Amino acid sequence: LAPWGPALVRRRVCARARRSRGRGGKRPVPAAAAMLEDGGHSGFGQGRGGNEGMSGTPMWQIKRKLAEYEKQRENLVQELIAEHEDRAIPPEPPNVLVDAVSAIGGSADGKAKPLVRHVLVKDLNKVAAMKSLEFPKTELFADKAPLGLYAVFDGNSCSGSPGPAAAEYCARNFHLKVMDNLVMLRQGAANAAFLKAALIKSFHDLDADYLATKPQVEDGCGAAAALLLGNHVFIAKLGQCGAWLAEAEGDRVAPMALGSQATTSVGSLGEPARKAQGSTTACTPEVHSVALKGCESHPFLLLASSTLIRVMSGVELVEAAADFHMQPRIACGDIVAAAVEKVKSQPVPSQLLLAQVCFLPPKEKAQDKKEKKAEAPPAAKKPKAGSKEGMRSIRLRHILLRTQDATAPVKNSSAASSASSAKAKPVRPRQEAEVLLRQFLKELKDALKGAARAPRTANDLVLFDNKKFGELCRQYSHCPTAQKGGGMCGDLGWMPREAQRKLSKEFQEAVSVLRPGDWSDIVASVDGLHIVQRIA
Fold this sequence. Notes:
With about 525 residues, the protein is of the alpha+beta class. The protein has helices spanning about 5-20, 30-35, 60-90, 125-130, 165-185, 190-215, 305-310, 315-320, 330-345, 365-375, 390, 415-425, 430-450, 460-475, 495-505, 505-510, and strands at about 95-105, 115-120, 145-155, 220-230, 230-240, 240-250, 250-255, 270, 285-290, 300-305, 350-360, 395-400, 490-495, 525, 530-535.
């Protein structure tokens, strides 16, 4: 074949292939012909002009198509990498402060199981990821919307005699039913109407499972639940439990009107004797959807047991909680303590429970931070390592009450007077310490209300609190900083995030939302219980 040359070989093979196709046959095209018609290797003969491929296509077109294919491949690779990185970043939890307080009024039996239970799932997306569940990604779930679930189950809210079984079962399994029904939402069906239906079905599934698991137990319970999804909250109420969304109306805060808000509903979960006929209407909650307008318009949400509603109305609860800005533990504890005083003379014990969800301003997303950082001009001078600017420190002072369940060893002071003073201060039970800290904050607020001239700035507020704070700190605080003189009493200095988190994650979260002059909620750490003021 050598004398014929490569060009002759190419023409003869291609001619044979054309004759086969012209006769209508379905003979397989020889491999060599296929290579030639598809372009082949550009080095195997260049044809008449020297710039054609083996199929007759000009080489410049082949190169252009190869470049397009390579560009598409690169774009696909980049999309896959971006999708993988996006999946690796977990959704942010809801930016809220949430807590609940329960107490027993009347003649209490310490050995009895509680009739009222609560569940606070601060990050439902995280729980779903641990169980390998995937929620929808469109509509209300778009942009990795934060997801939280909060609920109260009350065994007193039933038609029969109260019992603890139903409330305990529902508190353990409610979030599982909600996740199962959210996962079943299809793409394009993740709007408010379908979310309401999913929440109602979660109640039905919970009721059916309880009746199947414990058919001989006659206990039942009412419920009040809130599902927070992005900037939407879905509030469900069943039985005599209460749920109120606070709404700012000028200078006052009042409960937002949500349906009937009746507390005489006979619906409940459980109670198989009432549901022998198979009806599900008795366990269908009243569900409302509200688009939140920010923490200034909708500052907080309350969930209450039926026993608490019998003592205080919804308006009273909301107005009392509004006195404690961004302090859910203090607010719930103070309200429940006041209700206990009203029912302490009753011969029958009543368990009172209140949960509060305080809405905070939305966090800045990581992508927005990157864009701002890219658009920002370069800094004139890079902050030194360890400086306040580089470490994002804040200056704090506090009152610490050491509790019996504190895990950290007692801090020794170098001064003998500090050591003797620390020994004289008792270590208290947790509940007693909370009552005392609530009283301290009330005294500081009362002193501020009685001031002849209100402080204009955060620095004025800190200076105004110095005298009363110093008295309380020296007398009660277990921290060695309580023995410092003057305005340095209780001063923790400049604390970076790392130092805050060493005390506890809850401590870091509580102080991160404070503005200069603000007081924190009661926060637990390895040393005990604190109330903290940001002073700079």
